[in-house]
Design goal:
It is built from twelve helices and 13 strands. It is α/β, with parallel strands linked by helices. α8 crosses α11.
Length: about 375
């Protein structure tokens, strides 16, 4: 998964219950567009360019995989749901809600209906002051100035006062009781994608499996009987070295770590791929290593049915995976579920994502976060 985009939105309302409009807008954006990471204070600011009630304004920083054009399209849909009727032929006017796309990463975009950074942001205190609250390391890509520098030179002399703090929707998911989460799943379940997405959103350290570097993997898929033991031994050695090296860099009591595998997968896969005598030897070596490995505070297993797994494998297009059979995937699933059933020393959470797309559907991603939160509250 590529890094998500960092997007800054500015919200405003001066009709009806302004606070409720802003709060509902935050909920809808978080649920339908992207993960809101930070929210500014709520400001009251005079209307700009026309006489009306004062506005409530805020800014937010959001992570999303969507393009800027798609974000604009979805933002307009959110405005419509909240009752905004846009009249393009009228100038400045009162509005139930207004969503402006201010910044998209550090980029410069110039489309007919969308210009990034917002071309008037440096002249608007109701944009700059909330943006400053977000405490981002962001420099205007055209003007080459920070938000603090833009505030010092803005021609806007209007009085913008803080009304109150606003809740960030992501604050409802509290993961601070966990220091080390391992996300597991079958081939193609999306464990690496979810680990990266969560790490970006919760500012976590990552430990990601180096499967692409294993020289035996393509050979194994061509001739499993010949290369199974070499593959499993090389995976075990690499996983042990990586976990030992990576986890030693972090403080397991202070840092928040998300891994896209747990070393027990080595035993599970080897049981499926190795002959009985090879597995006995392998098991002896594994047991020695396993005792030394720190255990995750939470072990998440992403379950997907075989049909969906085969589709995911086909879509990601790794040539050496294209001949993986349904029978092989079902054996892996059974192995994982049997392992999970017999665990007494791991905090396990199984999430069925067979009908979920947590990459392209924000609500499906929030479903997973809510499952983790529910597990914490048990």
């Amino acid at each position: 998964m590529e890094s998500q985009h960092q997007v800054i939105l500015s919200l405003g309302s001066n009709q009806g219950n302004r606070l409720k409009n802003i709060e509902l807008c935050l909920e809808l954006i978080h649920r339908e567009i992207g993960t809101i990471i930070k929210v500014s204070n709520l400001y009251e600011t005079p209307s700009w360019g026309f006489e009306s009630e004062a506005f409530y304004n805020c800014a937010l920083v959001m992570h999303t995989a969507y393009s800027a054009q798609k974000i604009l399209e979805l933002a307009l849909q959110v405005e419509k749901k909240l009752g905004r009727i846009r009249n393009e032929n009228v100038g400045y006017q009162s509005r139930i809600i207004d969503i402006d796309l201010i910044a998209f990463d550090d980029g410069i975009l110039d489309f007919e209906h969308l210009k990034i950074p917002h071309p008037l942001m440096q002249n608007r205190k109701f944009v700059l002051l909330p943006f400053q609250d977000l405490k981002l390391d962001w420099v205007h890509p055209v003007l080459k100035k920070t938000i603090s520098e833009l505030i010092l030179i803005t021609p806007d002399d209007s009085i913008c006062k803080v009304v109150q703090k606003l809740k960030c929707p992501l604050d409802a998911v509290i993961l601070n009781q966990y220091n080390y989460i391992a996300i597991e799943g079958n081939i193609g379940a999306g464990k690496s994608t979810l680990a990266l997405k969560m790490a970006q959103d919760f500012n976590a350290k990552t430990v990601l499996e180096r499967f692409a570097d294993n020289p035996f993997l393509p050979k194994f898929y061509e001739d499993q009987g010949r290369y199974a033991f070499s593959l499993e031994m090389s995976f075990l050695a690499d996983r042990y070295q990586q976990l030992s090296d990576d986890l030693s860099q972090f403080d397991l009591f202070k840092d928040f770590i998300i891994a896209d595998y747990h070393i027990f997968k080595s035993l599970l896969f080897s049981k499926i791929t190795l002959e009985e005598d090879e597995f006995r030897l392998y098991r002896t070596l594994f047991d020695i290593i396993y005792k030394e490995m720190p255990k995750p505070d939470l072990y998440i297993y992403l379950y997907q049915n075989t049909t969906r797994l085969l589709q995911n494998i086909k879509n990601r297009g790794r040539s050496y995976e294209q001949d993986i059979t349904a029978d092989y995937l079902e054996k892996i699933n059974r192995g994982y579920l049997e392992y999970i059933k017999n665990q007494t020393d791991l905090n396990v959470l199984v999430i069925d994502v067979s009908d979920r797309d947590f990459v392209n559907n924000q609500e499906d991603y929030l479903f997973i976060l809510n499952k983790i939160q529910e597990k914490k509250n048990l």
